[in-house]
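Write out the 3D structure for:
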Amino acid sequence: MSNRKVIWVRDALVIFFSFYVVFTVASAPWSNLKVDPPLPETCETGCAPVVSFPENNYHHYENSVTFEWSSVSVGYRVVVSEVDTGDVKMDKNVTNELTSTTSRLPAGDYLTSVYYTGITGSTFSTYPVLKSEIVTIETSSKITVVWSEVGITYGLEIRIIKEVEDELPEIVKVHEVNNLEESVYTYSDFKNGKSYSWSVYAQDSRGYTSESSPFYVVNIDTTKFLAFELFNNWEVPFILLGVMMVIAMQAGVFLAREERND
């Protein structure tokens, strides 16, 4: 094989390998490397909704931001016991359901009770009673217990972070909304170049309010946008590194070829 063919084969392999490295780095699931703090499993009146968007972030040339979070679940405890003996025939916890059925029971009188165990994570000392009644069955059969839903709505709070010279930043609430039935909310009354923070919480129709989520910072139309995108997203610097590798290797091949020609 001639020297020219060897050089072209080498160049082709270098280019192929370089693009392979760039593609592999760009397609790697870097977001999975993000370490989130563990979510609490128990909260006095219920754990906060989990924020989907936006977390600490920069928004450039945007007039509005749509806030999103996950829906919370509510739980119930269903207890069925025999009236005469007090024997418990069913003691079951259910989530986001409004009905529960026992196994087949002998004829007799049964006390059916439904308790509200709260928003996910709640640690009530006593469960509020939603329903309690005696059911009589004449022949051996199953008992289906049905109850009314405890509704859930959401509240959202937005604060502005004011920088004060030679002092700690001043945080002022600028907007709060309640009774949101959907887990999404759009807000538009931002001031450009300002930093805001936001948090969301859940409320149920029994009067309980969950803990609030951590406050996340939202920077609107800031000059820090490019730097944040460059260094917060792992893919960007690695793609740039891959491009620089390609350029460097190609420059090396070119210089080596020039030396040989000399």
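Residues 107 and 137 are 5 Å apart (CA to CA).
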